Amino acid sequence: MAKRIDVSHLNVYYSNFLAVEDVTLAVEPKAVTAFIGPSGCGKSTVLRTLNRMHEVTPGARIEGKIMLDHEDIYGADIDPVNVRSTIGMVFQKPNPFPTMSIYGNVVAGIKLKKRTKRSELDDVVEASLRGANLWEEVKDRLDRPGSVLSGGQQQRLCIARAIAIQPQVLLMDEPCSALDPISTLAIEELIHELKQRYTIVIVTHNMQQAARVSDTTAFFNIAGTGKPGKLIEMNTTANIFSSPTEKATEDYISGRFG
Amino acid sequence: MAILDRTISDDELHNLLSQRKLPRWTTLATCATAIAGSALLSFISPVSGVAGTAVFAFLLFIVLQTGLSFAVEGKRYAIDRLATTLLLSALTAALVPLVSILLTVLVRGLNAFNANFLTSTMRNVSPRRPGGGILHALIGTLEQVAIAAAIGIPLGILAAVYLVEYGNRSRLARTISFFVDVMTGIPSIVAGLFVYTGFILTLGLQRSGLAAGISLSILMIPVVVRSTEEMLRLVPRDLREASYALGVPKYRTILRVVIPSASTGIITGAMLAVARVTGETAPLLLTTFLTQSINTNPFNGPQASLPTYVWDQISSGTTASIDRAWAGALTLILLVMILNLSARLIARASRVK
Predict the structure, then answer these.
(1) pLDDT in tens, chain B (353 residues)
(2) Between the CA of residue B314 and those of B108, B122, B136, B323, B351, what are the distances in Å?
(3) What's the rounded Cα separation, in Å, for the pair B90 and A21?
(4) Which of B1, B8, B17 lies at the smallest CB-CB distance from A131?
(5) Is the complex ipTM more than 0.85?
(6) Chain B nearest-CA residue for A165
(7) Minimal Cα–Cα distance from B1 to chain A, Å?
(8) Does residue B236 sit in helix, strand or coil?
């Protein structure tokens, strides 16, 4: 389990607008890779191409290649639905399904795909919620709606929901930016545990967070409005934050712009 | 936690991600096979006639496609193809009557539809003779609908503003909302009867374009209230709060922030209401009846209108008058279309660029 991702010469277009240009990077398995950069630099866009979620936006398309181990996830015989059940995703705002219970939310990805026995589901729910460090807090109220939980708990519920489908890779699009510091700490600790099992890619605006949780950091930047976003530099997190090779990276992480 | 751990080999990963697909041409091939199959069957079975063959070809296509897809692509894609086919067929079935009505009106209406038809009246034209026109009815309809809109749209919008912004879901507001919903369903002739008994018999108002406009406005108000209410409720609370936080009083917030945000939807709703009443016949017969010549004054005497014109020409029953009725129906459809298009243009122009 836990696969690596290789992106080569990725261009992303929205209709005719080139949003991201010529990104080549490697995401190592069982490690956390952070994407940082100013707003609009295309880091979320690149993240969404990793599980073909950008295809939900009308007019979006890519050029280039994205490999999951030896498998081209944009290959002619590859189904996007299957890609998404192998590469899970957690969004910026906690988005538990409002009409489903906590239990229902965790099994949503399994039950919406195929029939499974109740006892098997019970096991998956407990394992997923334990995996997301939420089990102790919700085990007595699994039948309550997801909306009774706090923001941080809701986000951990969404993580539980994402790992319940047994993904190989977990994508996180600014998972803490709507949360208070205590909930953020809980999620960051969770990310540390999750990387024992999954390949994790996280987009964040918070550079301290990138420094705390990630092993590798990729810095994206944009030359100006209307220009495409580019990958400026990618290295181990320690190197990026101590001795960046590019001037733009140094300016950004030392807070001189962005 | 072993349940969540899943180690998969490269082959397993490929099986997990890939999806066998039928090539594009199979849809066409299946279609051809189904048609050929049902044509063949029509020779050797009691299923006969174009309709029977078509229905059978359709069923055969569904069975063949679903079966083939199930065998090659698996359950999910087979169901997907079946559902897509059914949805497209439902769409086609829903469009057939619409297209058929439009085509029939267009083809039959063009017999009598020309420049002369739009610029002359029925004054001194015998029902048996061709010729004559619709100018008097066009003038009448435009005036009556304008009166209806002038009364109905402001009343409707103001009522909706009260319900959403000031009603606060009080018992009064909920009761009004309920009766507005009921009103959208009242038969149009009841609106005509209301104006006939309330204004013409009781208050002594003449049968006139004004009386017709009032009855049409009664039909418009619930539609306008309903659509405006929905649009105002869609305006996010944050916007109202942003305005209050600047020290803007409530009435200016409603006028400058809430209504402009919802304006596109409100205009669309109002135009739909106008389009709905433009074709009403029954209330006009009670409130203004009809004439064969121009009456530009909506406050005095009977006025013609497009729907009553069509009704009148159909009742005459001669070839020439039935041609005129179809041409009148065509004019009515064109008028509603122009009203709709102009509403869209207004809505687009009013948007911030």
Answers:
(1) 456 667 778 888 888 888 888 888 888 899 898 888 888 887 777 766 788 888 888 999 999 999 999 998 888 889 999 999 999 999 999 999 999 999 999 999 998 899 999 999 888 888 888 888 899 999 999 999 999 999 999 999 999 999 999 987 789 999 999 999 999 888 999 999 999 999 999 998 888 999 999 999 999 999 999 999 999 999 999 999 999 999 999 999 999 999 998 988 898 899 889 988 999 999 999 998 888 889 999 998 899 999 999 999 999 889 999 999 999 999 999 999 998 888 888 878 877 65
(2) 13, 14, 17, 9, 44
(3) 43
(4) B1
(5) no
(6) B4
(7) 6
(8) coil
C-beta neighbour count of A112 within 10 angstroms: 9
User: What is the least distance, in Å, from the CA of B238 to any CA of chain A?
Assistant: 17
Q: What does the alpha-carbon distance between residue A82 and residue B16 come to, in Å, rounded to a whole number?
A: 7
Which helix H or strand E contains B190, and what residues bound it?
helix B188-195
**Encoding tokens for residue B93?**
């079935």
Nearest to B4 among A68, A69, A127 (CB): A127
B233 to chain A, any CB pair closer than 8 A? The answer is no
Separation in Å, CA B248 to CA B165, B244, B255: 15, 5, 11
User: B17, A79: Cβ pair inside 8 Å?
Assistant: yes
Q: Is the CB of A86 less than 8 angstroms away from the CB of B16?
A: yes
Gap between the Cα atoms of A217 and B149, Å rounded: 63
Determine the length of chain B: 353
Is the Cβ pair B6, A82 closer than 8 Å?
A: no
Contacts of A142 (CB under 8 A, 6+ apart): A101, A102, A103, A125
Structural domains for chain B: 2-109 (no CATH), 135-352 (1.10.3720.10)
- Picking from B3, B6, B13, the nearest residue to A123 by CB comes out as B3
